[in-house]
Specification:
428 residues, Dna Ligase, domain 1, 19 strands, Rossmann fold, 3 domains, alpha+beta
Amino acid sequence: MGKYKGKKVLIMAGKPIGSEDIVNYLKNNKAYTIVTDNHPIKYSPAKLIADESWNISTADVQAIVEKAKKREIDAVFTGAHEFNIWKTMEVCDNLVLPFYASREQLLKTTVKSIYKQLFKNFQIPVVTEYEIKENFIESNFSQIQYPVLIKPVDGSGGYGISICYNEVELKAGYEKAILYSKMGEVLVEKHTSSAEVTIFYIIQNGKIMLSAMADRFTGNGEKYTIPLPVLYIFPSTYLDKYISTLNDNVIAAFESMDLKNGMIFIQSFIDNGRFLFYDIGFRLTGTQEYHILDHICGYHPLEMLVDYSLTGKMGEEDISAKVNPYFNNKLAFNITFLAKPCTIGKYKGIWDVERMQGVLKVIKNHQEGTIIPQSAVGTLNQVVLRVLGVSDSFEDMRTLIASVKEEIDVLSDRGKTVLIPSFNLDKL
């Protein structure tokens, strides 16, 4: 295959999840790949495999645009990182190159207060929120039912989030959240420890299709930090109920935003059988479920988005007949391994796990030598490894997950295991 032979494609940042997949897809199709960021090559995995790399931060849009013009770049794209999504959109706007999302669409799917109002407009339940005034003047603290979750209105990755149990902690959490908000605004929501699901949509030529839904298992949260994902299982046990009660409303909400192409995900609690949406993203996901969709359903959202950056179309094929959130009666999983603050020394068991029947992909989020600081606790920066797999039955899946867990270990630079105990298979 060489459909992009002679094309020069710039990838914004070599470390975000998905960047290596982008480079590999383009190289397989004979494109010339360039990766730019301000990280050393050894800490920027996509730079290691690209044809060329630039030492320009993705924050420096002007410098990137100037160099891209000189090099006659044909397309610009990026992986699953919200900051780089915004910067890539800016670069594409300046270069008049295709990008699947507009500034307005990104705003509506990034700022929590905006998309929560959108959902409310379409009778879609969201997590209860409380209004906190700047400097706490006129704030009605008596209405708040603790514990609450306070977070930046435009944040991602778990940064700037606190769980608060009283007014003193709420005020401290407010100051923390503000530091991580570019807009200088926060959101205060009722905290719940209910079951969770993640819902995925693929959008092609204006057709918005429910592509997948997973039960999202979390763990390892401390008193003041949010629990992090440890396992996803597809399809969700709540899929039937979601399709019959909310799917049409959600599609209508997205249609009102004039979404034409791309992929979008939603995170929701299940509280007493009721869906309560709490997050959304109009971008590739860190979970990289596109590998599962490719294997089971026969279409690859990442590759389709890369195609759009070059052609203005998400592939030549209409995928609507392939989209099936029931996964053609197959099961799939995504195990997420978390690590304590450390310097990563060595991964163990990856090669053996990759050879297991049913395992599709083993994905390292961090390279050996990467430091996970104490400040990463409670954020997705603690995710060090993901293992994606498929199965024909629940029992076979349980057995495979147990085998994967038994083999994998992550050691610090001092040779000690740093993996955090994840989930109890007996509770599945």
